[in-house]
Design brief:
The protein has 244 residues and is α+β, with helices and mostly antiparallel strands. Helix content is 28%, strand content 30%. The chain contains six helices and twelve strands. Helix 2 runs antiparallel to helix 5 and helix 2 packs across helix 6. The structure holds biotinyl-5-AMP (BT5).
């Protein structure tokens, strides 16, 4: 049965232009913001990816952060939960068949349409979500341009940004609620169904190491399992995956 009230987006703050929604939300948490608070920006001037990378965030995209207070803020599954909720919400709102690449990419036509950045700040986890909704390619840095795509390009018309926001908030709320209620395995199954990673040969760069093999599955903690030609699959907790 669906719940009547939603946690994610119970308080929603819209900002025109800021550095990073993750940073603002982190400082709001210190000032007593409640779990479920969301910050959405029209434009970010210092959007971040993982490992100090930058995230291009011109107007036309959906740039938001959600404040969560999970039992374990560093739980690897949070990124997968957020990715599942985002992909399901984006699919519902736009019809674009968005898929997921481990650990945090949203992909469309083999290109990156969005990403998730979870930052643990115990007792909080700040979940940043970026989706190229109606982002003009010309506004992206040249090196990003050819590997990125936006929803509008794929569906053939401008997509209602507020409808995507609503879909993503509902999707993340639903997936996080399942995790909190001990139904994490169900959310991981939803991730598997949306995955473009599993079953494919992949190269993983993790902690200075390169691992090649078939991405066979994710385990119950959200780690990626890579099977080589011999021995047990290698368990990958963090890194970048290139599909071969
Ligand atoms: C991510 O990192 O994919 C996480 C992105 C999270 C962005 C959201 S927006 C709201 C919130 N506030 C923030 O400051 N961040 C979050 P990663 O897997 O490290 O991917 C980063 C890489 O993606 C970059 O090095 C570029 O190559 C590429 N990239 C940058 N901007 C992009 C864009 N708009 N679309 C597609 N790819 C992009």
């Amino acid at each position: 049965m669906r719940r009547q009230t939603r946690l994610v987006g119970s308080t929603l703050l819209r900002i025109d232009r800021l550095g990073s929604t993750n940073d603002l939300l982190r400082s709001l948490a210190r000032q007593g913001a409640a779990e479920g608070t969301v910050v959405v920006a029209r434009e970010q001037t210092a959007g971040r990816g993982r490992m100090g990378r930058s995230w291009a965030s011109p107007p036309g995209g959906l740039w938001l952060s959600v404040l969560l207070r999970p039992p374990r803020p560093a739980d690897l599954r949070l990124a997968l939960v957020a990715a599942v909720g985002t992909a399901e919400g984006v699919r519902r709102a736009s019809g674009a068949p968005v898929g997921l690449k481990w650990p945090n990419d949203l992909v469309l036509q083999e290109r990156k349409v969005g990403g998730v950045l979870v930052e643990a700040a115990p007792p909080w986890a700040v979940v940043g979500i970026g989706v190229n909704v109606n982002v003009e390619r010309a506004l992206l840095p040249p090196d990003v341009r050819e590997r990125a795509v936006c929803l509008a390009e794929v569906v053939g018309h401008t997509v209602d940004l507020d409808a995507v926001l609503e879909g993503v908030l509902a999707g993340v709320d639903d997936a996080y609620d399942a995790l909190r209620r001990g139904r994490g395995e169900e959310v991981l199954d939803r991730w598997r169904r949306l995955s473009v990673t599993l079953g494919r040969p992949a190269r993983v760069r993790t902690g200075g190491r390169l691992i090649e093999g078939i991405a066979v599955d994710i385990d119950a903690t959200g780690a990626l399992l890579i099977a080589g030609s011999a021995g047990a699959p290698v368990r990958v907790l963090t890194g970048d995956v290139t599909l071969l």
